[in-house]
């Protein structure tokens, strides 16, 4: 009976060792799968980033011409407006200066309306 118990204990110990090996292998397998998943995710993220970057560059290239043409049109319009303003200034400056001088030189001496005459 002691021999049988000894054999049973030995079998249990061997089964326990085998189970711990299986558990260790499972842990290693899980760790490896996590590493593989991280690597795969990093690759997918990089591919997605490259695709979006190319998409952005294409969008930027297609709209760059319209920005330059809009800037050119705005510059032309600004030059036209500036010329109009300069013409108006040159045309009206003599009249404005004359009106200002007339107002400054024209002085009507009057008593202030709040000043009352003192009757003696």
TrEMBL record:
GO molecular-function term, one example from the UniProt record: proton-transporting ATPase activity, rotational mechanism
Family of the protein in this entry: Belongs to the V-ATPase G subunit family.
Pfam families for this protein: V-ATPase_G (PF03179)
Coiled-coil intervals, chain numbering: 12-54
Domain of life: Eukaryota
Swiss-Prot/TrEMBL keywords: Coiled coil, Hydrogen ion transport, Ion transport, Transport
Native organism: Steccherinum ochraceum
The protein's assembly and partners: V-ATPase is a heteromultimeric enzyme made up of two complexes: the ATP-hydrolytic V1 complex and the proton translocation V0 complex.
Gene3D superfamilies listed in its UniProt record: 1.20.5.2950
GO cellular component: vacuolar proton-transporting V-type ATPase, V1 domain
Function: Subunit of the V1 complex of vacuolar(H+)-ATPase (V-ATPase), a multisubunit enzyme composed of a peripheral complex (V1) that hydrolyzes ATP and a membrane integral complex (V0) that translocates protons. V-ATPase is responsible for acidifying and maintaining the pH of intracellular compartments and in some cell types, is targeted to the plasma membrane, where it is responsible for acidifying the extracellular environment.
Protein name: V-type proton ATPase subunit G
NCBIfam families to which the protein is assigned, alphabetical: V_ATP_synt_G (TIGR01147)
Gene: VMA10
Alphabetical list of InterPro entries matching this protein: V-ATPase_G
